[in-house]
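Record 1 of the preview.
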Amino acid sequence: MKAAPKNDDPTRFLPVGVRKSYFLLSKADRDVLNIALGKYQPAKSEPILVGGARLLKPALRLLTLYRLRIDEICDGKAVTSYTRWLEAVQVKDESVFVTLNPRFTRIWLEVKKRLIDSAQQTINPGVSH
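->
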């Protein structure tokens, strides 16, 4: 059984199903995802450079083998979706680029907002946003 995420662990803000899906990934696959998330900018739609040819195999696994589980409430009903982590993988001159799945990027933006709010609460306790 895995321990609960620590307070400095950004995955603590992920929905439970997404967190479980994330931790089922191999370290190499999580590394590709972490690089892409670290470079992700919502205003840009270009593929994200994650590294060299050694990352092609983990990126392709994220595209084809692994599924992300998203549990949501829509119109008062529980809905579970299984979708890919990545939308696309491209190789240009030995460099690997990925495009994140749009359904996951929405969740990631919510997580980043919570992280920023949490960091601000740590810096300025008692101040609400």
